[in-house]
Specification:
The complex is a heterodimer of chains A (241) and B (302).
Chain A: E1 5-14, E2 17-27, E3 32-37, H1 43-50, E4 55-62, E5 65-66, H2 72-77, E6 80-83, H3 95-102, H4 112-122, H5 124-128, H6 139-151, E7 157-161, H7 169-184, E8 188-192, H8 196-202, E9 205-210, E10 213-218, H9 225-234, H10 236-240
Helix pairs in contact in A: 3-6
Chain B: H1 2-32, H2 39-57, H3 61-84, H4 92-113, E1 118-120, E2 130-132, E3 135-137, H5 139-161, H6 163-173, H7 175-180, H8 185-211, E4 213-215, H9 218-233, H10 238-259, H11 261-278
Antiparallel strand pairs in B: 1-4, 2-3
Helix pairs in contact in B: 1-5, 1-8, 1-9, 1-10, 2-3, 2-4, 2-8, 2-9, 3-4, 3-8, 5-6, 5-8, 6-8, 9-10, 9-11, 10-11
Classes of the chains: A alpha/beta (241), B mainly alpha (302).
């Protein structure tokens, strides 16, 4: 079976600056795939490129269909949800309105009430804060809201950008528990994470990225964790030498 | 005392038309984060179209109103496609400068069709003021107040009770996130632009009906009054637009009553200056946090 999301020779640039130099990767259906790499390796840009939020080259296929050249809004409607860097909370809107916007692109509006129920089961704190302005939530609650909002679109693929960023360890663990739980229920997840230890614990497959290129691809366990971390953050060249 | 009450009444009435103009202006600014200088001239295109049909065929007032609104919307769509859609949110200056160029274009096009300095405009009602005790009240001015109340209530319902409004508020709040939940931001911006100019069209019609004439200065007048009222109230704030319009109307009318007509326009700028010094974010300063750029979003106002 071909991967759910497949990119070949993916390039991306901001203005004149190229950030991704021909990246190829696949995200298997039903799994958790993660990209590891140092700051500035192009991890966030990779997710943005999938959603066509930057100028891209190369091919991206979702479920066999070419999606490069489509608009962000069309891609979202195909069933890709993206929790962006910085969480993308609508701070002046209420928690409930944030969730309602999550379902904005959904064609079938049946089962909305059940989805609210399901999400409030996952995130009871959001149920308590339903009418509260989302900007008043704590960082962890906003990250939960970002995931919850993404789920409201009933995505087939969830792109997550650094869900652990700036959160207390306990909250991070809670969020990662939810991520694995969601995956077990069938959502394919493509995760970008700084915290390699955490990401390797949940992922089925990982890519190492350096300066806009993939330098290694494999399953956790294939490389010792300290080796992964050395390569991801110190660079493969130094590691090889 | 009677003079003061009469002035207040007049100020609220003319302030209502400024509030309407600012309402459209602020809607565009809130959604686009960019200034549309062609706002007034777009309304002028509609007004000139209405005037042309009125002068040539004696179209009744109601139809002229419809033509003014439709013309303003059509011109606004033209402006949006030309000056706003092609540029990114960060390119505020490019949009503003090009909307200035289109201002000239729209104004000249209007003047080519109706070259005289002024033309008659159909009135609302008989134009005779009602006498209520010692006070005078004009039907066309009352219509401005009613229109302000009705349209701001309508806008509130659209923004807070409809899916379209929710999406608009999402764009105003966080454009990137709005894209990521699947909102077609470009299409919605065009709709918001059209809606804003429809409100402006209503304002334009009511003002011209009260003046009973239209002049070639109308485009500039509408942009300036709308801009001042919006800035007094606070950029992008809907309650601010209403408050700003009323404050501007009152200041102008009081200045007129106290110091004579020459001071009227000057007082508007003085009021703007004083208010911006005291409350840099406008009177509805509660939205101050919105006037600062959000993470990952660079925008330029002026």
């Amino acid at each position: 079976m071909p991967p759910l999301l497949e990119a070949s020779e993916l390039e991306a640039q901001y203005g004149w600056t190229k950030v991704l130099h021909g990246l190829s990767f696949g995200v298997e259906s039903g799994g958790i795939t993660t990209i590891l790499g140092a700051n500035g390796a192009g991890k966030t840009t990779t997710l943005r490129a999938v959603c066509q939020m930057v100028k891209t080259g190369g091919q991206v296929r979702f479920d066999g269909q070419r999606i490069d050249g489509k608009s962000t809004e069309q891609i979202v409607r195909l069933g890709i949800a993206h929790t962006p860097e910085g969480r993308g909370t609508f701070v002046s809107l209420s928690v409930e309105e944030n969730l309602r916007l999550g379902a904005y692109a959904r064609r079938d509006r049946t089962g909305l009430a059940e989805d609210y129920e399901r999400i409030f089961q996952y995130f009871p704190v959001l149920a308590q804060r339903r009418r509260q302005q989302a900007g008043t939530l704590s960082g962890g609650e906003q990250q939960m809201l970002a995931v919850a909002r993404a789920l409201m679109s009933r995505p087939r693929l969830l792109l997550m950008d650094e869900p652990s960023l700036g959160l207390a360890p306990l909250v991070v663990r809670e969020i990662f528990d939810i991520v694995t739980e969601l995956n077990r229920e069938g959502t394919t997840i493509f995760l970008v994470e700084q915290n390699a230890h955490l990401a390797l614990k949940v992922a089925h497959h990982f890519y190492l990225m350096e300066q806009g290129r993939v330098t290694f691809s494999g399953t956790p366990g294939q490389l010792a964790e300290d080796e992964v971390i050395r390569r991801a953050y110190l660079g493969s060249r130094q590691a090889a030498g | 005392m009677v003079d003061l009450i009469q002035s207040t009444l007049d100020g609220v009435m003319s302030g209502s038309s400024y509030g309407l103009l600012a309402l459209g202006f602020t809607l565009i600014f809130g959604v686009m984060r960019r200034l549309n200088l062609s706002y007034g001239p777009s309304i002028m295109v509609g007004a000139y179209l209405g005037t042309l049909l009125y002068v040539q065929f004696g179209l009744p007032s109601a139809l002229v109103a419809a033509v003014v609104v439709a013309g303003a919307i059509a011109a606004a769509v033209y402006v949006e496609r030309l000056c706003f859609a092609p540029f990114a949110v960060g390119a505020g200056i490019a949009s503003m400068v090009s909307s200035f160029a289109i201002w000239m274009q729209l104004e000249q096009a209007s003047i080519l069709v109706l070259p005289r300095h002024s033309y008659p405009f159909p009135t609302l009602g008989s134009g005779e003021p009602w006498q209520i005790g010692p006070l005078l009240l004009r039907a066309d001015q009352l219509a401005m107040l009613l229109a302000l109340l009705a349209l701001s209530a309508g806008l509130y319902v659209i923004l807070y009770r409809t899916r379209f409004g929710l999406a608009l508020r999402a764009i105003i709040d966080n454009r990137t996130a709005a894209l990521l939940v699947g909102i077609d931001v470009n299409a919605l911006m065009l709709k918001a632009f059209a809606l804003a100019s429809a409100i402006g069209g209503v304002a334009g019609f009511l003002v011209l009906a009260a003046n009973q004439q239209v002049t070639a200065m109308f485009g500039m007048w509408a942009t300036l009054k709308g801009l001042i009222a919006m800035m007094i109230g606070g950029l992008g704030s809907i309650p601010g637009a209403i408050v700003g319009g009323l404050v501007l109307g009152l200041v102008e009318t009081y200045a007129h009553a106290l110091f004579g007509p020459q001071i009227r326009d000057l007082s508007a700028y003085l009021a703007l200056f004083a208010i911006l010094v005291l409350w840099p974010h406008g009177l509805a300063g509660g939205r101050a946090e919105q006037a600062t750029p959000q993470r990952g979003e660079r925008w330029t106002t002026i």
